[in-house]
């Protein structure tokens, strides 16, 4: 990384919109270090108070599944409907359950 | 799975309204078309900062100047959202910028027209951003996840761009005779380039049918252009501006405003590099890219130093 056309490492940006909500992915920025990544993320993704907190993570450090291995990968949870409350039959007239 | 099976599955997903994500299988023509379109879109946002920045130092009030600066900063931001979305195809940003600077990648021709007076800033916001919004609202529904998400973000922000432009025009149309004349002059010069932004007629657009099947676009150039004309003609009349087209007339049956044929010779001349400002826009981009080299070098040197420090303290 030294010539005129070098681009800085890529970071993924996650924004927390309000207190208590989950951090959501917004996009990416380029930066040489964490501080610059946070500042760039602020300038690019939160110009209208979209966030109250930011995470930046180097893109290379993210692992993900793909649509192609979706079926196989998520198979184990598919036939376990008994993990949801509606699976169970309650006697007629039961309340507060 | 064979490629044919993969293609069938891919098309079925698109038909079902699913979004395609970066690591999913996709036909090469799909990623190639999208990358071309998205990089062109990103470059347009960035080059689009130039005609507007021409008026920052001559804005008529502090209010107008603050608004213009915020708008230009948004355009830069939009360029970055789009570069970021394009990078999901694995291309790096330096390569896209090189393609722009060597002329291999295009940007919207509308930015090759000059901004001659303050009313041009109004006309750009109202007409150019207005046309962009019609196009981008459509693109927000496209099948590629990262592009669609960037478009949703951009559309939210563009609303202010168009309204601030119309406000400038409306204000000038209540001003002196000279101010009205400036507004009308800007209207006359920007109307046709704005209509050209939607691209060639559907019949002549090379990529339309495949792009529609794969939902790279979901509505055709001509349909979008007509929607823009219908909205804009009434806004023009509302503040006393004349649309510079002697054949403009309302068709009660189709409920469309009919307009003259676009001067396609001019369109292609500007696309091919012969517009009033093509050379100037590119020279400016290259100059400031090169002059910014020391900033990039300093940032890298600083990071290297930080890492050295970390090593020695461990």
Features:
heterodimer; A: alpha+beta; three-stranded antiparallel beta sheet; 3 strands; 18% helix; elongated; B: 314 residues; mainly alpha; Ferritin; 2 domains
Topology:
The complex is a heterodimer of chains A (97) and B (314).
Chain A: E1 10-16, E2 23-30, H1 34-45, E3 53-58, H2 70-74
Chain B: H1 3-15, H2 28-47, H3 49-53, H4 62-86, H5 93-101, H6 118-139, H7 145-172, H8 177-196, H9 208-213, H10 221-238, E1 249-251, E2 256-258, H11 264-274, H12 278-291, H13 293-313
Antiparallel strand pairs in B: 1-2
Helix pairs in contact in B: 2-4, 4-7, 6-7, 6-8, 6-10
Give the domain tally of chain A: 1
The CA-CA distance between the termini of chain B, in Å, is 50 Å
Number of strands of chain B: 2
Structural class estimated from helices and strands of chain A: alpha+beta
Helical stretch count of chain A?
A: 2
**What's the main sheet of chain A like?**
3 strands, antiparallel
Number of helices of chain B: 13
Strand content of chain A: 15-25%
| CATH homologous superfamily assignment of the largest domain in chain B | Ferritin, core subunit, four-helix bundle
Greatest chain-chain contact = A-B, 24 and 34 residues
Shape of chain B: globular
Mean pLDDT of chain B: 94
Low-confidence stretches of chain B: none
User: Distance between the terminal alpha carbons of chain A, to the nearest Å?
Assistant: 62 Å
Calculate Rg of chain B over CA atoms. Answer: 22 Å
SSE pattern of chain B: HHHHHHHHHHEEHHH
Task: Based on the coordinates given, report the CATH architecture of the largest domain in chain B.
Answer: Up-down Bundle
* Radius of gyration based on Cα positions of chain A: 22 Å
């Amino acid at each position: 990384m030294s010539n005129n056309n070098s681009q800085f490492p890529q970071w993924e940006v996650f924004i927390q919109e309000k207190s208590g909500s989950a951090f959501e992915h917004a996009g990416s920025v380029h930066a040489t270090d964490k501080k610059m990544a946070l500042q760039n993320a602020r300038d690019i993704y939160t110009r209208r108070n979209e966030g109250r907190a930011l995470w930046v993570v180097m893109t290379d450090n993210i692992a993900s599944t793909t649509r192609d291995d979706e079926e196989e990968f998520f198979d184990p949870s598919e036939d376990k409907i008994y993990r949801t409350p509606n699976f169970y039959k309650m006697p007629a007239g039961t309340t507060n359950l | 799975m064979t490629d044919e099976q993969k293609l069938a599955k891919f098309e079925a997903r698109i038909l079902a309204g699913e979004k395609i994500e970066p690591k999913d299988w996709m036909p090469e023509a799909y990623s190639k078309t999208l990358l071309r379109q998205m990089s062109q879109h990103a470059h347009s946002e960035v080059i689009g900062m130039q005609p507007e920045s021409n008026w920052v130092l001559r804005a008529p009030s502090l209010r107008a100047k603050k608004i213009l600066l915020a708008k230009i900063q948004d355009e830069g931001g939009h360029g970055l959202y789009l570069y970021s979305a394009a990078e999901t195809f694995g291309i790096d940003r330096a390569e896209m910028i090189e393609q722009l600077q060597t002329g291999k990648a295009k940007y919207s021709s509308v930015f090759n027209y000059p901004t001659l007076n303050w009313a041009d800033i109004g006309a750009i916001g109202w007409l150019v951003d207005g046309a962009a919004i019609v196009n981008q609202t459509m693109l927000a529904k496209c099948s590629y996840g990262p592009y669609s998400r960037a478009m949703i973000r951009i559309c939210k922000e563009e609303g202010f761009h168009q309204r601030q432009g119309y406000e400038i025009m409306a204000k000038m149309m209540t001003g002196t005779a000279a101010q009205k004349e400036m507004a009308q002059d800007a209207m006359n010069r920007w109307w046709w380039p704005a209509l050209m932004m939607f691209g060639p007629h559907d019949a002549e657009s090379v990529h339309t049918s495949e792009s529609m099947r794969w939902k790279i676009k979901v509505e055709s150039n001509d349909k979008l252009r007509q929607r823009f004309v219908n909205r804009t003609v009434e806004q023009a009349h509302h503040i006393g501006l004349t649309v510079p087209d002697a054949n403009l007339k309302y068709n009660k049956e189709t409920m469309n405003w009919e307009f003259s044929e676009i001067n396609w010779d001019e369109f292609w001349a500007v696309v091919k590099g012969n517009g009033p400002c093509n050379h100037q826009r590119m020279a400016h981009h290259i100059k400031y890219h090169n002059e910014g080299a020391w900033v990039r070098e300093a940032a890298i040197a600083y990071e290297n130093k930080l890492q050295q420090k970390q090593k020695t303290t461990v």
